[in-house]
Design a protein that fits this description.
The chain is mainly α and 233 residues long. Helix content is 76%, strand content 0%. The two termini are 21 Å apart.
């Protein structure tokens, strides 16, 4: 058993996967109405819905999860009323995160799947890739790394089609992490390093997370270079 597998015990793996795999807007929001770390494809087109989702994300930032869920649910209801499929997909994604955080995993997965279908119907490649990353947490939590890799590989294909480097970096980081866990050390290191290159070239906020993944890649080498890994962390 290598050092990487020792570090990632099942419960810790589920937590890490959730934190890393929630949508981009869930952990890159700032007080600015337009955040360059959030692709335009992940921002609602309707001003009222967009404002509600931004309030939800801001509430998450300060730990007010009940308010965040309420705002996201209101945004979802409004998107359904206005029949805005693309905005509905974004709201479904945030509500799904709320369900997951409250332990309602099945409700969360159901809503994520609805979000994916709405993203497909609205031809939103970036959102499709983002939701597939989130959905990959389900097989991950069950130890089904092959299933997770399949979803993340699909996500990377969509990210490449979208030509959006923000979502590409996100998908590469998560794909690299699972490749490492699956024992595909060379592939995982390459994926994480590519994600880091994109982060550093553009100043994206995902750089620290991907830097940690690269530290695990160093630990997974045979033999592991502890000094290098510590420096990376």
């Amino acid at each position: 058993m290598n050092a990487l597998r020792i570090v990632f015990q099942p419960r810790l793996l589920l937590l890490v996967c959730f934190i890393a795999s929630v949508s981009i807007p869930g952990h890159c929001q700032t007080s600015s109405p337009i955040n360059r770390d959030i692709p335009v494809e992940l921002q609602a087109t309707d001003p009222e819905i967009r404002a509600l989702l931004e309030e939800a994300r801001s509430s998450v930032d300060i730990g007010n999860y009940d308010v965040a869920f309420s705002k996201a649910k209101t945004a979802l209801d409004l998107a359904e009323t206005k029949r805005l499929v693309g905005d509905k997909a974004l709201a479904e994604q945030l509500v799904a995160i709320g369900y997951f955080g409250s332990g309602k995993v099945e409700d969360s997965l159901k809503l994520y799947r609805a979000s994916l279908q709405d993203a497909i119907d609205s031809s939103n490649l970036v959102l499709q890739a983002d939701v597939l990353v989130a959905l990959s947490t389900s097989p991950q939590s069950q130890g089904n790394l092959t299933g997770a890799l399949d979803l993340l590989t699909r996500a990377l294909e969509l990210a490449n089609q979208s030509k959006n480097i923000i979502i590409k970096a996100r998908v590469l980081g998560e794909l690299g992490k699972i490749q490492l866990l699956a024992g595909k050390i060379e592939e995982g290191s390459k994926s994480v390093q590519e994600a880091l290159q994109i982060d550093r070239a553009n100043g994206y906020m995902s750089e620290p997370l991907h830097a940690v993944y690269l530290g695990y890649a160093v630990l997974s080498e045979s033999p592991p270079d502890l000094t290098k890994a510590i420096a990376q962390f």
